[in-house]
Each structure stands twice: as C-alpha cells, then as structure tokens.
Design a protein that fits this description.
The chain contains 42 helices and 26 strands. Helix 5 packs across helix 6, helix 15 (375-388) packs antiparallel against helix 22 and helix 19 (468-481) packs antiparallel against helix 21 (501-525). The longest helix is centred in the last third of the chain and has 26 residues, at 837-862.
Amino acid sequence: MIEFIIGQAGSGKTTLMLERIAEASSEGKKQYILVPEQYSYEFDKTLYYRIGAGKFNDIYSLSFTSLARQLFQQYGDPNRNSEYADELTRMILIYQAVAAVQKSPESLSYFRKRSFNNGFAEDVLRVINDMKRAGVRPSQLREKASMLDKQLMDKTTDVSAVYAEYDRLMSEYGFKDNLDNISEAAETANLYGCFKGTNVYIDEFESFTGDQLKMLNVIIADADNVVIALRTEDVKSGKFTLFETVNRTYNAIAAICRELHEDFTVTACGRSYRFNHPDLEYLSSHIMRNFRYAPESAPLPEHITVFEAKDMYSEAEYVCAMVKRLINGGNALKYRDIAIISNDIAEYADVLKATFGRYDIPYFLSVEKSVSHTPIMVFFTSLLDILTAKKLRSELVFRLLKCGILEYSLTEVSHLENYCYKWGIEDAMWFSEFTAHDAELEKIEGLRSAVIEPIVSLRKNVGRKNTASGLCRLLYEYLINCNAETALAKLMSRLIKENRDHEAAELKRLWGCLMDILDSISDTLGDNVLTISEASRIIRSMINSITYSVPPQTLDTVIAASARTARLNSPKIVFVMGATDGSFPNQVNVRGVFSEAEKQKLADNGIEISRPLTDLIASERLVVYKALSSASERLYITYPLSDLSGQAKYAAPAIDSISKMFGESFHITKEEDVPPHYYAVTYHSAYYHYMQNKSENTESVASIREVLNDSPEYQRRISYVLRRSDHRQDFRIDSDVMKKLKSFYPLELSSTALENFSQCHFMYFCSQWLGLSECERIDMDRRVVGELTHDCFRGILGKRTKSEFVGLTVKELRAEIEHYAERYRRERLGGDFSKTARFELVFRKLTERLAGVFIHTQQSLMASDFVPRDYELNLRRKHPVVLEFGDGDYKLSFGGVVDRLDTCTVGDEKYVRIVDYKPGKKYINAETLGGGTNLQMLLYLFSVTEKGGPYEDYEPAGVLYAPVQINDISLEKSRNNEPNISAVNAALKTNGLVLGDADVLEAMENGAAGKYIPARLTKDGTIDSRSACISRDSMKRLRNFVHKKLTGMAESLLEGNCEAVPLVSGGKIPCSYCRYINICDNSLLTRYRTADEESIAEAEEILSHKTDAEKEEE
C-alpha cells in the first residue's frame, strides 16, 4: 500500500509519519526512512526521542546516497574494484576530457573557441552531473542530436563528446562516479528484491531527480508499505499555484503506482499544530495563495511585525536589538529558540557578524565559505601566478609574502616593499642583486635572495616537460623547503595557546585541502604530461569548488541560515531578513551550456536534463511560504531600502500581500519610528547608537547617555568624543606630551618647519614631530630637479672664482653639468639600477636644459658687482639664531642651509645677499609675511648678519629666489644649436626682496634694469614703484617681524596647538598636496584660515617704505 500524507506547513505530516513508524516498529519488519541529507540530523533526533533507543537502532534512516552505499555493502558493488571519484578528482578529469576533445578537430564545433575560456570545464561538468542524475547517457545525446536544429545539434554533439571522454577517463583511471550510484543501486535492489517485505517512509522531499525516481520505482514495486509526506494542501490544484512543484512530484509518483498497479491513498492533515497564535496560522494558510483578501475576517496581526530599514546595517541593528530584548524579556526564551533566515544570507554574513558582536549574541552562521580567499590558498594561487606569468610583477610577490605563510615578519616585508616602491622594482630586476643604497640594504637583499631564488629555481623546473606527479612533487617540495608547513605549525600552536582552537583547526583543515589537491592530481594523472599552465587552471578550479563552514561554538545559539536550505528545529521566533523584490522570492537566473529554451527542446525530444524554469520559479515561491510559516510564537519580516552598494531596494510582493490580508489593523514599522534608546540593550550597542544620534536633543538620546555614564570606560569614551564633536579640528596635545616628543631646551626649528607650520599646524606635527611620511619614490620629480640643480651649482660654482665661472664656455659648462649630473645619478639615484628608458631620456633632457640655467647665472653675475662667497652654508652647526620664548623659560634654535651667499662692498658698507634655487616661483608680500610663509631666506639673511653671525659686520642687501622651472622653459634650439637664452632669462628672473638703495641695486645689477633682480631704477635714478624694495629701517623692523613669527610658532607648539586648519593664501590650499589629508578630519575643508589681518597690515606698513628717503619725508 502506498500512502501520501499531505498538508500545509505545521499541519503534523511528520508527526503522523512518526506515528506510523512507531506502530510498525513492533511488527518486526525492516523499515527504511529516506530524508534529504541536510535534514537527516534533526529528523533522526526527533525519531530517537519518539520511539526510543532500542527501536531506533532497528531502523535504517538514510538519504538516497547513503541508501545506495548500504545496498552496495550488503549485496555487492558492480564496480567493487573501482575507487569513488571525489569532487577534486572529477574536476581533474573534466579538464582532461576537455583538453583531449580539443585535440580532435572534428570533436568540437560550436564550443571550440569557448572551450579555452576559464569556467567552460566547470559549466560542462555541471551539465554532465545533471544528466547523470537524470539517467541520460552520452549515447542518448548523440542519437537525439540529429533530430535537433543545427545550433542545438552542434551544442549537443560537443557536450556528448566531452561527456563520453569524461566517462572513458573515469573508467581508464579506475574511478567510479558516485552520481551513478543511485541508478546502479536501484538495479541492484531490483535484482535482489531488497525492499520486499519492508516499510519505507519518505519525508521532506519536494521533488526527485531521475535516478531517485528510478529507486522509488523499485521501492514502490517491492515494499509492503510506502508512506510519503508531501507539503501540499490539494494534490489536484493546477498550474501556477503555491504547491505546483510538490503536486508535479505527486503526479509523477502516482503515475508510477498506476504503471505498477499499486493502490495508493491520500491522507490529508487539515489542522495546523505548529502555530500558537491565530494570526500566524492565518498568514500561513493564506500567503502566496490565489485567495480574495478578506481583512474583515482576519485576526489581529499581533504576532507579526514588518520593519522597513534604510539599509542592511540598520536592518541588522533592529533584528539584533529585538533578539536581545526578547531574551531579556523574562519569558524563559533561549537563543536556540530564535532563527534568522534570508535568501541572501551570504550577503548579510559580514553585517550580521559585526552586529551580533555588538549585542553580545551567540550565533551560528550557516554559510558555506569558499577557501579561495583564505591565506593558505591565496599564498598558493599567488605562487601559481608567479610561475605562469611571463613577467614577474611585484604585486604578485608581495601578495605571496603578505599571506603570513612564510617565516618573514611584516616589518621585513615592509622594508622590502618600500625599497621596491622607491626604486620601481619590476620583472627582471627581481632576478638581480639589489645594489641601490638603503640603510637596510643587507637585510633587504637577503630577503630578496631568500624569496626569489627558490622561485627562480622552481620556475625553471616547472617550465620543463613534467609528469603530473613530478609537477606536484616540485610544488610540494617548494612548500616544504620554504618552511611553509613549519610556519603554519607554529601559527597553530600560538592560536591554541590563545584559546583560538577553532581557528587552528581551520588552518589545519585548509592545509589538508591543499595537500588533497596535490595528491588528487598526482594520483589521478600520475605519469601523464602536465604543463604548469594546465595545472594552474585545474588547481584554481579545484580551490574555487571547495567550501567550508565553521561549526557552532556553543549549544545555545541563534541560528542564521539560508531560507532555502535551513532545517529549523521548531523555532519559536523567526526573523526573515532581506524581504525585497527580486530576493524574496529569489529571481531565478539560469546559466550554463544550454539556455532554458534549449533545455525545453531537449526535454521535448526525451532528454530532460534538469528541472524546468517554471518548476524553479515555483520552488522559490515555496521557499517564501516555508519561511513565513516557520515561527510558532512570533514572526518578524524586515527589508532594507538599499543594499550594500547603495542600490535602491523595494519591499517584496509578499509584504503587500500581508498588508492587504490583514487590512487596516496591519502597519509597517519604519526605522524612523524606532527611538535610539530602543537599541541600547548592551553598552556596546548603546554607545554605537549614541555616537550616531548624539547631536539630537531628545529624551531618548539623553537616556542612552545616562546609561553609558554608569560605565567608566564608556564615560571616558564619550567625554573624548564630545570634546571633538564640534568638528573644529583644533587638535590640542598636552604640553607635557609635547615636551616628551621633542626637547624644548632648546627647541630646534628649521625654515621648512616654519613654512609647514604656517601652512597647517597638523601637517607640521605629523611630519616633524611624529615622523609620519610617505614612501619615497625615485622619479624625475621636483625634488630630484632641485637636488640636481643644487649639486651642479655647488660643484661648478663652488670651486671657482666669479671670474673663472663667468669665463666658462657653453661646451665647458655642458661637460661640467654632465659630470656632476652623472655623479648625482650614481650616488643619489642608484646609477643604472632600476632605470627605465623613459627615466634615462628625461634625465638626459634635464641635464641638457640645465646649461641654459647656468648661462643665465653667468650673465647675471657678469652684470653684478656681488661675488659668490659661500655655498651650502650650514647655519645649524654654526651661528644658529637663538631666541627666548615662554616668558624666557625656553629657547629656540633656528638654522638651516643657505644655497648661495654673495657679498659686495658699496662705498664704505659691506653687503650680503642670499640666493636660493627653487623649483618654483616664490614671492614675498604682505600676505605671505602675514601668514608666516616664504620667510626662509629672510631668516637666513638676518641669521648671518646677527651679532655673532658669520657676516655680522655686513648689512643685509636682500634675498633672491632663483626659480629653476626648467621643465617650463621654452628651449627651442637656435640656428647655432645653442639654448634660447632670451626665453631662459625671462623664465629664470629672480623674485624676492632687496634693499631700497640705488647704489646697492646698481651693484646687484649694473644699470638696474630689472633683468636679473626684482627691482629697477627709472631714468631719473629713482627706484621704480613696482620694485620689491624695502628701506633700511624697514629691514630692521622686518627682522623683528619674522623673529616674532618664529617665537609665535614656538609658543604655539609649547601649548600643543596642532589644529588641522590650513592657511589659504594666494588662492593656494595646502590640502591639495598634503600627505595627511585622510587623517586630519578636515578633508572637506570645513575650516580654513587666512593670514591674520593685523599681521598683514603690519607687513604692509613695513613693505610700504621702499627707500630711506621715503621715511625721511614722513
């Protein structure tokens, strides 16, 4: 007798089946129970408690797969000499099958080009697996192919060729595909009458594959009694109904019964026993049905809540807050009574992990994770990338090193990475010794050698002709020789000592997976020739196919699982997350070798590969029904209005159905309806939501603050945040901390320090006090241009008198420039090390263009009475400026290096001027002085002429900024192949500030026409009003002004002023080139400052007096 037990969710189908089992257990008959593998544990546990240990041990509780294995053990396996092919072996064989068919030109027509693409072999294997489950053989495909249209015929023929070769290889290598087991076991059961005189019970299936139906045919034919439980209300309901998939299954089994002349009955379970409240039962019995809505007869939805969140993060916050409140509600609820299910549980995984932690909720996240992103597998795939790449990219090397598998510290790897970034190491450079200077060069070269040389040897070995086993042995030997296994063992020991046993076990399992992969390839392909490229493709596919899950770490946990696969143990509370359109139910996407239309054509010709699209769509609707019918006490349905990428989402159609089902008594709770204090169920969650809402002046936020004040830890955190909450970026460091960071006895300052501090206090603090800096990169940038220019001037001009220098010919200048440029290139740029053709070209052009700069300098000196006296004068070592600050309790010491110092005697006075070479133009005006920028040369000028300075008996004549923007100079060649000097002179004209004395200006530039200095005399001998001049008295006042700026900086540092409020001057914003823009909390420039108006006014007044005569007239 065949009995179908039908009924909706929670109607007692399984309970009735258990009663049948209990009644029959005393008859002495052999009893089989078949359930899907993922449900076997929960079913067995329920059955065990229902009938007791004694009777339970007499029952065979199996899945179809384990039933096949048991039948083979009992009656013999027709392929007993064959070993089962596991997933890894199947992946190897399908790649071999595709490769074999590719070598035969007539075997592939439609898929020939596509067969070389990544993923093709996996797609074909999925189709073959479907065919095996459906009982379709390669010969059947070939027979039916001629009956199809041209394109589908070619596709079918290609697949049949790969399928036949796959089966041939399976047999040749002595493997048996366990996907054939059920079909073969059905034949064995039929041959031996295995089910005669037995009772068979089948539960939790909604559909059956072809091989399972073949087994069912044998069971129905031989068994005394067969009981099948199906989730459906009416087996006669038509298409497009909720239980369409299950009814199709019923009809298929009923057809078998009629064919075998077996009687069958249908037992309907009408009443629902699961639900403890009428609204939950009403929802289950009406959702996804074609009923007319009758809200007037619906019960109040008191135990159904729908929540609309702005995004997935706030959705998870609500769910976890509700879970915690339910647990703390005093109704004896356990965490294991609560389930969270979603069709997109993998997408919610990381969001939920963080939120569970915030709410102190123990959880089990039932998500299969791919091993491909674990450190061990990333390490190995990076190695494969290096072995198969034509060029050795630094990115691959550091991906390999940063996995933490090799015994190198992160510090060592970072030194190597910084070195490679600095020198632009790529490709063949890795194979040669690193020679460019570095403080850690010996360690860096040692690490390069230790890492690269074994890889070079391995690349050489795997590049030869190798067998599969030989190739795997080479890869394994590399792992052993580089101590990867030893390093992992040490890491596992450390994790165990830190009570992180599950992480250690995970590492062990992943290492085992890698070894299984190499063993499978070696054992399967053995002495077959295998290239490293082919091996890499196979290994990657094998890695991508392996998944793992972390088991529960405690018994009482909230389970978070996929709505499709979750087997829930009678949860009282269920949260359905992600109930959005397109996700609940899921949109069915069919991909693979055959389109859905092609599958239908094949089915029409007797080859049914997989379930039709309509069946898959019906199954997704059934998933929604099961999810909404799983709670016995309370149901929560939540959905976000945007996903993780910010894409808009909308409520699922089921939400609208529920709303219409219950009418006006039903309403959706929106995120804005929930006050912040609702989430304050742990200190961590309370703090989290207080931070998000602290600007709101509400009782809810105030109550959270009051709760957090009970915890000293969170009270401290809040106090700190509130000090920073106005986003003023006015960072203040305690004065005692500042003194620990740097000595104030004296406080040593440089010109660059003053410049940076004036532009942005925070930038200066990060750079000079904390020592935060970006990795240096050797390239033809402004820094290199500046250093090269300085080196050439120091070498060429520094060892010659003025007359000797101006007497040099262009040819001699070029030779000297090339000499010093080559020395700079060798000593500072590492010589030929890591230099590209582009670098060489730009460097050569740079040295060529420097000739114009030197010719301009020759001409300016020939037109001047000033004589270069000092080069690279170091004021830090000797004659620094020492000033008092902090009420005289502290001192500052200012110094730096002067590029060039010129002197001249005019009348009875001796004068000194400072010349500085800059890669850009610099100006001295009231705004720059008021803002404290471009003071460097003025400070140098006053330093050398101070009492006790190296030129204390000289008068300050001024400062000149000589721009060296040679990349912007028009260097068209004249007819005699000489530089365009007129263009050079125009571009290199100096800026700065000079003494407003006609005689001194005449000495600086004979004729004072303003060609080489920023000042000129008119025809009547007076100073032009546009000249950058200043009177003697103003020069003295300017000295006091810049010293006041210097002491003001020291005072500010003593107070710990590190505010991230940049100075905007002349339309320039320091943030545009600042390295600390991402850490200052002012990246949007919400606050900035301009030069102090009073300071600008004072500077304007000082600069307004260009000559002493003007002062006397006043």
